[in-house]
Amino acid sequence: MLKEVLATRYITPLREGGSLPGLVEADDLGTYVLKFTGAGQGRKTLVAEVVCGELARRLGLRMPRLVVVGLDPVLGLGEPDQQVQELLRSSGGANLGMDFLSGALGFDPLAFRIGPEEAGRIVWFDALVNNVDRSWRNPNLLVWRGDLWLIDHGATMIWHHNWPGAETSAARPYDASDHALAPFRPDLETAAAQLSPLITEELLAEVTAEIPDAWLTDEPGFDTPDDLRRAYARPLLARAAIIHERIHGIEGTK
Q: pLDDT tens, 167-179?
């Protein structure tokens, strides 16, 4: 399971994201970007962050460490921003934290170049989880200590917003024409050969086991958190075998 820490100080809101994440310190002396269960997108966004973040890490992609952050709403009492106060008050309990990469810069394709193999691995992964939020307008990529890091996977696996249609939704192609790394000639064939065999039932069970039970309860149509975990795994397993053939918008692909 993800490491659990307790928030000890709310530092500041980070207004770059639509969900208004915040920067906090925790009792392990770490500093984390905190994403709240009380934000407008709700706990499904946090589930997507965990599934995709932990899957990316196991596939060898760089992803800041994720933790579960316990939050006492009292931390927001001194916050002058009413919106932030309300967010903190509505997010007591388990929230999601991501290691704060101090000094990291937003990815600029004119200033930072990557090779076709790394670009291919990231585009293939985004196609697998149907990430619609890695465009040149909003890459959700950071450059830290000379390497490229992936962040912000809340806008993925859109099928989990409508489970009855999940199988159909997960079978759809992926349009990568707007992807931030499309200009780097992603080597999708090599990426598929390397990564697709790694997506197994065992790996997906390990990844989905990282999701806190509290974020999986009371989902219509599912009796237990483990039933819902298996529902998250099934589309990814099926998609991994065929998605390289259904990536459109990259030079050299159909």
A: 898 899 999 999 9
